[in-house]
Hints:
Mean pLDDT: 95
Radius of gyration: 16 Å
Amino acid sequence: MLNKEKVLETIQSLPEEFSLDELVGRLILLEKINTGLQEVEEGKVVNQEEAKERMKKW
């Protein structure tokens, strides 16, 4: 989940004029990064060897 501070930082980093698509794109990226970091903290990740083994099954 995003917090106001991160969203405001993202908005502040934009140029004076920007499109809504650019803002939404950056917010989606920010959310995905936060989700990934949270999953790492929760141990919901696989190492490279395990990923290779899973790929073999495809």
